[in-house]
Amino acid sequence: MVETNARTREGVGMTSLRTRRRLIGRLRDQGITDENVLSVIEQTPRHLFIDEALSHKAYEDTALPIGHNQTISQPLVVALMTVLVLNNDIQVKRVLEVGTGCGYQTSILSQLVSWVFSIERIGGLQKQAKERMISLGYRNVSYLNGDGFDGWQSNQPFDGILVSAAPRVVPDSLLKQLGIGAKLVIPVGSSDHQRLRIITRKVDRFEEEQREAVRFVPMLNGRR
Ligand code: SAH
Predict the structure, then answer these.
(1) Percent of the chain that is helix, strand, coil (3-state, to 5)
(2) Mutate to test the pocket of ligand 1, among 49, 66, 121 (most ligand atoms within 8 A of CB)
(3) Is the CB of 99 under 6 A from ligand 1?
(4) What are the pLDDT digits (tens) for 153-207?
(5) CA-to-CA distance for 33 and 25, rounded, in angstroms?
(6) What is the CATH number of domain 63-214?
């Protein structure tokens, strides 16, 4: 039978593999060279993480609304942050993610590391993400409906931490939950002016690098 439903994993038309490959081309043009990350993005059905009415925009390089006033991150930013957190001399096996959202970044990470620990403050959003992830077969993820400002004490230290909401200053608790050599990748700043930072935990100090300007929703206290 010929598949005409755009809600399949393979997709058709604006959600087809051909459309996805065009996105990969754009990511390459913008400096993403990590073949593992590019291939995972190519294989991941981003159109199934957003509302059906927006499916045709799934492989444009833009952020899109996912309800509860939140957005799915732009593919270029997902690719860049993934490369930054994984590119390390230590083996990056266990990663903490703050801001599950619709689960798209979670799914990308879960295909590249052994286990993802993902925290989201909005319970309803995380429940949907979790169900979607399970139905798509991404199972190496633990979910916590909690406040990312506290990190995830019982599972630390992590080999990397990726934050997809922007605090005003880097939370101390997240620095403390980095293992030696691990990197924290985090957007920091006000709602209209943020910069991506990478902070690496060395044996006796933290090393910090400032990267590109980005735009994320604010990181907020408390869960609901
Ligand atoms: N990577 C996600 C991005 C979602 S937007 C995706 O691609 O879908 C950022 C998310 O961070 C939102 O869902 C928001 O609710 C969540 N967030 C904001 N502050 C938080 C906090 N303190 N702890 C956990 N999650 C938080």
Answers:
(1) 35, 30, 40
(2) 121
(3) yes
(4) 999 999 999 999 999 999 999 999 999 999 999 999 998 889 999 999 999 999 9
(5) 10
(6) 3.40.50.150
